Amino acid sequence: MSPEQRAMEDRVWWQSRYGRLSQRVLRLLVDGASGELSRSTVSASLDRLTMAVDSDPEDVRHAVQVLSSSLAHRGLKIKLDHSVSSFSRLSTASGL
Hints:
By secondary structure, the chain is α+β, with helices and mostly antiparallel strands. The chain has helices at about 5-25, 45-55, 55-70; strands spanning about 40-45, 75-85, 85-95. A three-stranded antiparallel beta sheet has the order 1-3-2, covered by helices on one side. The chain is globular.
């Protein structure tokens, strides 16, 4: 298997494992009426994100990674910033 095929297989596995959860995390940033990103930043601990989507912390962390990969194809970036004590900052930015 070529490196490109392995990378594609890896992306498919991660998406199949964490895709639904990543969509639940994305909904925290999307305006329900318009369907557009209504927030560019959500400041919350990983525990709070976990409670918001009712899932395991490690699964949420992986879901954010899957979401980040998906948004990158649309010119958006998302990251968890762990620099503020025990809080994470979930943010998206266009054109970065």
